[in-house]
Amino acid sequence: MKFKLIDRVIEQSADRIVAVKNVTSSEEYLADHFPTFPVLPGVMMLETLVQAGRLLLCGGLEPHHGDDVPLVMARARNVRYGNMVRPGETLEVEVTLKSKKNGQWNLVGIGRVQGAVAVQGKFDLAPLPVKKEI
């Protein structure tokens, strides 16, 4: 199942993107997380940063970067969670490109809800390794 989490790009430059994810009560994963206290799962907050990073690198064409190889998260580090994001709230994410090394793009992202940090961390995106036919 694929989730498109970015609802709108607010601003974008060559090395920075700001986008929003509007959390609604109709999102199916909220029914289980948690049944009496729905919140956006942490992994979905991180995925929102990753999707914004893909949009940044691909100039709005997700998830590829100039060819037919999709970009995937190669590594995540220093990921921390703060405030919860509940239905009816908006997660605003800001992702900045720091560098490109060894075929991977190094990015840093932060997500805020009502001005308070909900998620932050560093992550790398890389082309999906292609299996070679023998």
Distance between the ends: 30 Å
Listing every helix as H and every strand as E from the N terminus to the C terminus, the arrangement reads EEHEEEE
CATH architecture: Roll
Oligomeric state of the chains? single chain
Question: Helix fraction?
Answer: 10-25%
CATH top level label: Alpha Beta
Count of distinct strands: 6
What does the largest sheet look like?
6 strands, antiparallel
Q: The CATH topology is what? A: Thiol Ester Dehydrase, Chain A
- Domain count: the total is 1
Overall 3D form: globular
Overall average residue pLDDT: 91
Order of strands across the main sheet: 1-2-4-5-6-3
* Radius of gyration, taken over Cα atoms and rounded to an integer in Å: 15 Å
Question: How would you describe this protein?
Answer:
The protein contains one helix and six strands, in the order ββαββββ. With 134 residues, the chain is mainly beta. The protein has one domain: Hotdog Thioesterase (Thiol Ester Dehydrase, Chain A, Roll), CATH 3.10.129.10. It has a six-stranded antiparallel β-sheet, with helices on one face. A hairpin with a 2-residue loop joins strand 4 and strand 5. It is globular. The model has no long low-confidence stretch (mean pLDDT 91).
Features:
Thiol Ester Dehydrase, Chain A; 1 helix; mainly beta; 134 residues; 13% helix; six-stranded antiparallel beta sheet
